[in-house]
Amino acid sequence: MPKMRKKGDLPSKICASCGLPFNWRKKWARDWDNVRYCSDRCKRTKVETKS
């Protein structure tokens, strides 16, 4: 069995839409590098970035 991790030891990111921090989830394990939004709602209401 794999070692257990504490929730505080999991990696986190800042949501590109709402700006709030969110933690790693098992369903994002394969694609963590490409995850940008904390939820489907934030994904739908993307904030336009000016370049």
Q: Total number of β-strand segments?
A: 2
SSE pattern: EEH
Strand content: 5-15%
Mean pLDDT over the residues: 85
- Any idea what the shape is? elongated
Give me the side-by-side strand order of the main sheet: 1-2
Question: How far apart, in Å, are the first and last alpha carbons?
Answer: 47 Å
Largest sheet: 2 strands, antiparallel
The radius of gyration over CA amounts to 13 Å
Residues in helix, %: under 10%
Number of helices: 1
Q: By helix and strand content, what is the structural category? A: little secondary structure
Q: How many independent structural domains? A: 1
Model regions low in confidence, pLDDT < 50 over at least 5 residues = none
Detailed description of the structure:
This is DUF2256 domain-containing protein. It holds the Pfam family DUF2256. This protein is largely without helices or strands and 51 residues long. It has one domain. It contains one helix and two strands. A two-stranded antiparallel sheet has the order 1-2. A hairpin with a 6-residue loop joins β1 and β2 (21-23).
Briefly characterize the structure.
The chain is low in regular secondary structure and 51 residues long. It has one helix spanning 40-44; strands spanning 12-14, 21-23. It has a two-stranded antiparallel ribbon.
